[in-house]
Amino acid sequence: MRRFVLLFTLSILIIPANAFAEVAIETSVSRSRVSVGEELTLDITITNAQGKISRPVISSVDGFTSYSQSHSQEISIVNGVSSSKSVFSYALVANSPGQKTIGPFEINIDGRVYKVAPVKIEVVPNAATPQLVPISSGLPVSSPPARALPAGNVGDRDIFVKAWLDRDEVFVNEPAMLTYTLYTRLSATYKGFEKEPETTGFWVEDFPPEKTIRRTEKILNGSRYVVADVRKLALFPTEPGVFTVDPGTLAAVVELRSQDDFDSYFSSNVFGRRNFPSPFASQIISQTLSTENVALTAKALPEAGRPAGFSGAVGDYQIESSLDKDQAQAGDPVTFRLRIWGQGNISTLQMPALPGLEDFKVYDSATSTNVAKNRLIVEGEKITETAIVPKKAGTYTIPAVSFYFFDPRARVYKEIKTAERTLRVTAAPEGEREASSEPGGVRPVEKEDVAFVAKDIRYLKARNEGRVWPELFKNPFYWGFAILMLVLALAWGASAGRKETALGDRKIFRLRRSHSLARKKLKAAEVFLKENRDEAFYAEMDSALRGYFADRLDISPQAVSLETIESRVADGDADPEMLNRIKTILGELSGSRFGSVKKDKEEMKDLCESAGRVIDRFEKVRLK
């Protein structure tokens, strides 16, 4: 009986701790007291979240100019217990003094909405300048002294915006920089975007603003303008083709002065702020600024020289690997760390798989991604840490890991690889050979162990006359409880055995679950549609479709694209109609989630049904 109790206790202990962990959301700011014009960082940290995390919705940032700065995610496994952390960071520039409130916040995690209380910030006047009533809560853009205009008379030549690309042709997954440049002859304040740009077909990285917007002066058609770049986006096309980008619309406010000579002397706004309060009235007018669409051609990556292990990475990268120890005992976990860094689309970069390690147990990897955007370059690193457990003593060589990418400057595919790693494994001491070979230090319960315990229980029942508490064993409630515990232990052991067998081959496990999991998510999307939760509907649809193809192709969801799917379909099974339908659905989902494309309920229902038919049809496709 002692052995049974020990077994049952261990079966409870090895349940992953994060199965009971609750989602925790924390907001923090780098400073709670800032001066006008100074920057602070707002971090929204989400831990132990399971499923898709949508970008937080901030209901109010009055008194600040807000830009999305970065999003990082970290998953770690310590002693067999996994934990996750996702951080959304925002750079905020204070525009006016006073007690300010940022938020409250709403975050959608796997279809469930969490509400977070607002944070309070004290903004004090800038010590270098007199305290003045601000023109608006946006970020000022300098304007040259100009003649007074009649009230309400703001023409297209007085203030306008241009959106432009640094190049008009790139390869798939190579960035093109979209810049918004504001031109003004008036005292103006940039207020952000009323309508976000339409970026269907692109992975987008939004650059954080500079602490101080750089302003220059330019003469156009005989008129002097103050010019400032107010926003920059890196666009990574996800598939080849000719794309037209709708840049969206910007909001600004302008100040029209009612007097010329006196007002230009007392309230010259050359640097976006008054030098002295004006004794004359001014008129504040809101402006919506739009610009022409921009076109970009995305070229397909060349077929010639494409390596078999190429997964779509474009840019310039380096790679390294390491072990946390070079000596270990059999059954002890060792961490294999793989790091890739460089310039390119780090967020969607697919890490290479470990080479065959027959003499090791290999567990799922923890991946962390860090993206930096500065100097008009998107760069960063992606790191995976994998627990490997040697099964027996010996000297082992961890083979080199290769990674392939396309260099758009040299227009060639390149291979980089890690060095080989040597691990010396000694036999475990005699008393520890039955100990854990798991990263948590608890040996998993096998089915045979459970059956043997049952035999022990029957044996003890026949020999219980010598026990200290004979009355306890005669109590029917005791044996009822013991039998219940046994049934639970047997059920758990059988379930764990099936799960371990399935997880033994991760690729087969993903393949087998792909269709049923996608169908389950599509049903959840239908529920969201009936509840009029459009955002959750599109998020679940996207998760279902990308998750299905990711499982079928054994890649990450971020790497799913039409080009990747086409490259993996066996010759003769590439149905153009089906592939075109996949492209259409993915494009419509991106447009509805991140763009301005709106659909009615009937169209959304048709989209869901169409996705289901595509998934059913793709089940019959043979893969390379």
Structure description:
- The chain folds into five domains: 109 residues, Immunoglobulin-like (Sandwich), CATH 2.60.40.740; 164 residues, no CATH class; 118 residues, Immunoglobulin-like (Sandwich); 60 residues; 113 residues.
- The strands form eight sheets. Strands 1, 3, 5, 6, 23, 25, 26, 27 and 28 form a nine-stranded antiparallel beta sheet that branches. Strands 12, 14, 16, 17 and 18 form a five-stranded antiparallel beta sheet that branches.
- It is globular and about 90 Å long.
- The longest helix has 29 residues.
- Helix 3 runs antiparallel to helix 5 and helix 6 packs antiparallel against helix 10.
- The protein is built from ten helices and 32 strands.
- With 624 residues, the chain is of the alpha+beta class.
Indicate the low-confidence ranges by residue numbers.
1-20, 76-81, 128-151, 258-281, 434-469, 500-504
What is the oligomer described by this structure?
Answer: single chain
Number of helices: 10
Structural class: alpha+beta
Distance between the termini: 54 Å
Strand content: 35-45%
Taken together, the total number of domains comes to: 5
Largest sheet composition: 9 strands, antiparallel
Question: Average pLDDT, to the nearest integer?
Answer: 76
Q: What's the alpha carbon Rg, rounded to whole Å?
A: 31 Å
Give the overall shape, derived from the CA principal axes. globular
Number of strands: 32
Q: In percent, how helical is the residue content? A: 25-40%
